[in-house]
Amino acid sequence: MTVNYEVEMDEIKQTIKQTLLIDRLKLEDITAEEITDDMILFGEELGLDSVEAFEVMVGMEEVYGVMVEDLPATELKIHLRNVQSIAELIMARKTKGTRVQ
């Protein structure tokens, strides 16, 4: 991994935490700093639901131009698991413009 890749990943993770989660979902009981990269977003830890998952996907398209409608639901669930997996999906789509496996 290059330094630029790591810097860009860190920036994407911060944007996911602040813009896609805190701001877009209007989360009031948690800060971006409290959301770890591996925190489970839906269900267990952060407790987001399917409507909020949809909002995150719309935000990914608006902020990064990343569309995910071509992914099967089972794959999408894996990619939306936590901040790290969302960031990896965004980076893969941005750098390759291809489908993430």
From TrEMBL:
PROSITE patterns: CARRIER (PS50075). Transmembrane segments: none annotated. InterPro entries: ACP-like_sf, PP-bd_ACP. It comes from the Bacteria. Residues 11-94 form the Carrier domain. This is Acyl carrier protein.
